[in-house]
């Protein structure tokens, strides 16, 4: 990747500095900050600390790619854009001083705190823990009750049960999305830590800070001996130039592959077959909903009643190129398209009939009552039809799957916030 050219920024005062990054205000862009990474690697709350040339660049590249993946999927983050090789621009937040840790496999500190659990124990569902950020006390583990009793207030938002629930549910979804993405590279995401902040502009909770090679454990092919994360540095018996080069190679390996997480693993599509052009408006609703999942749609007109040979010819056209495809049959009155397609292809077929108020209750039976041996499903809502197609195609395309997972989370969060607002009005 060529060096990224950065536009001049009016950088103001330093707002904060951590072990591996600095935060600066942007004078001409209120509400935004510059997050500048440092060539420093630490472990054990900076008990171990060394310079590693090039770390800022690989950390920034990793964070930018991961946040781009999550943001494009629909997760609310503070990330705005990568500014340079070593810095990115983010929304200014007041950080919630808690690290949320999600674990798929038992290892590391979890084993020390839970004697008797063997390394490699797999958590299904995921195991989640939280740690209060307090270097002086080695970031003690907190319970949900401790977080609630702290009554934190950041950017005007008090952290209560609703906010804790949102962060907890978001942590699980974010882990699953990053896990799914790394699986495309045959890498197991063992555990990951993230942090949230409250946007000073919107006063909503967003994923903030960074997600880089210091934030997780990655085991290529699920093999601990091949680990490529900061654990390589933690386990050094002696810090030598040769040892630091080995650590750097691991970080570079991750930063090179992380950009592949943004690429689809397989092209896919939905082919919309409509009985006549009078069904175009219904098909356009399906196409618009598919676009929200990043799935291209092809619209064709064919009648299984009036031209079955042409219908089967069109079917064969899309079966012949090997692209994963879902056929959607859009036909009112007597739906012949869905059953004929389902009986003549091994590809999934969904019927989404455009029912009318007058004959709808009668017409729908031609989509629901199938002869034996046909697996054609029927979904009445255009948006739900697109979602079902996305769930099928998402089994092979992690980017589609991530958009589905983020949509589930956002629906849950919107209901949670609506309930909180209603309770406040009632009080």
Instruction: Classify the helix fraction into a percent range.
Output: 25-40%
Radius of gyration: 26 Å
User: Average pLDDT, to the nearest integer?
Assistant: 94
Strand content: 25-35%
The chain-level structural class is alpha+beta
- Characterize the largest beta sheet: strand count, sense, and whether it forms a barrel: 7 strands, antiparallel
Low-confidence stretches: none
What is the straight-line distance between the termini?
56 Å
Number of helices: 13
Shape: elongated
- Number of DSSP-assigned strands: 21
GO molecular function: ATP binding; carboxy-lyase activity; phosphoribosylaminoimidazolesuccinocarboxamide synthase activity
InterPro entries: PurE_classII, PurE_dom, SAICAR_synt/ADE2_N, SAICAR_synthetase, SAICAR_synthetase_CS
Keywords: ATP-binding, Decarboxylase, Ligase, Lyase, Multifunctional enzyme, Nucleotide-binding, Purine biosynthesis
Subunit structure: Homooctamer.
Task: Describe this protein's structure.
GO terms for molecular function: ATP binding; carboxy-lyase activity; phosphoribosylaminoimidazolesuccinocarboxamide synthase activity. Pfam families: AIRC, SAICAR_synt. Homooctamer. It comes from Astatotilapia calliptera. With 427 residues, the chain is an alpha+beta fold. The protein is built from 13 helices and 21 strands. It has helices at residues 55-73, 109-113, 144-150, 161-183, 231-234, 241-258, 280-291, 308-319, 337-342, 360-363, 365-368, 382-393, 398-426, and strands at residues 11-17, 21-26, 32-37, 40-43, 48-51, 79-84, 87-91, 93-95, 98-105, 122-132, 141-142, 153-154, 157-158, 187-199, 205-208, 216-220, 269-274, 297-301, 325-330, 349-351, 377-378. Strand 10 (122-132) and strand 11 (141-142) form a beta hairpin. Helix 4 packs antiparallel against helix 13. The longest helix has 29 residues, at 398-426. The radius of gyration is 26 Å and the shape is elongated.
């Amino acid at each position: 990747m060529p060096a990224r050219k950065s536009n001049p920024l009016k950088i103001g005062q330093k707002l904060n500095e951590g072990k591996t990054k600095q935060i600066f205000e942007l004078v001409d862009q209120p509400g935004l900050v510059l997050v500048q990474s440092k060539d420093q690697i630490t472990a054990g709350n900076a008990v171990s600390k060394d310079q590693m040339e090039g770390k800022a660049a690989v950390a920034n590249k990793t964070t930018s790619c991961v946040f781009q993946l999550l943001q494009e999927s629909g997760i609310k983050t503070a990330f705005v854009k990568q500014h340079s090789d070593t810095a990115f621009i983010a929304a200014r937040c007041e950080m919630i001083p808690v690290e949320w840790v999600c674990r798929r496999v038992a290892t590391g500190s979890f084993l020390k705190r839970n004697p008797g659990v063997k390394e490699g124990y797999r958590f299904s569902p995921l195991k989640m823990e939280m740690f209060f950020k307090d270097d002086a006390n080695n970031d003690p583990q907190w319970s949900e009750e401790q977080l609630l009793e702290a009554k934190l207030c950041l950017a005007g938002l008090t952290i209560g049960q609703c906010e804790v629930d949102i962060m907890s549910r978001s942590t699980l979804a974010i882990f699953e999305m990053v896990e799914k993405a790394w699986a495309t590279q045959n890498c197991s995401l063992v555990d990951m830590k993230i942090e949230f902040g409250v946007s000073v502009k919107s006063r909503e909770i967003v994923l903030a800070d960074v997600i880089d090679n210091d934030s997780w454990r990655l085991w290529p092919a699920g093999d601990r001996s091949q680990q490529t994360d900061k654990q390589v540095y933690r386990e050094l018996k002696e810090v030598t130039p040769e040892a630091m080069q080995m650590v750097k190679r691991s970080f570079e390996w991750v930063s090179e592959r992380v950009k592949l997480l943004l690429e689809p693993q397989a092209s896919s599509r939905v082919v919309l077959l409509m009985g006549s052009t009078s069904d175009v408006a219904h098909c356009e609703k399906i196409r618009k909903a598919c676009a929200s999942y990043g799935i291209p749609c092809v619209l064709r007109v064919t009648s299984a009643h009036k031209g079955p040979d042409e219908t089967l010819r069109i079917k064969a056209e899309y079966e012949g190129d090997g692209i994963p495809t879902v056929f959607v049959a859009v036909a009112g009155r007597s739906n012949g398209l869905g059953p004929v397609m389902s009986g003549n292809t091994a590809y999934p077929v969904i019927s989404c009939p455009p029912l009318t108020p007058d004959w709808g209750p009668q017409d729908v039976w031609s989509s629901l009552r199938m002869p034996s041996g046909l697996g054609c499903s029927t979904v009445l809502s255009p948006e739900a039809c697109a979602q079902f197609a996305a769930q099928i195609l998402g089994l092979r395309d992690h980017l589609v799957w991530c958009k589905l997972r983020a949509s589930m989370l956002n629906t849950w969060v919107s209901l949670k916030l609506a309930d909180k607002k209603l309770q406040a009005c009632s009080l």
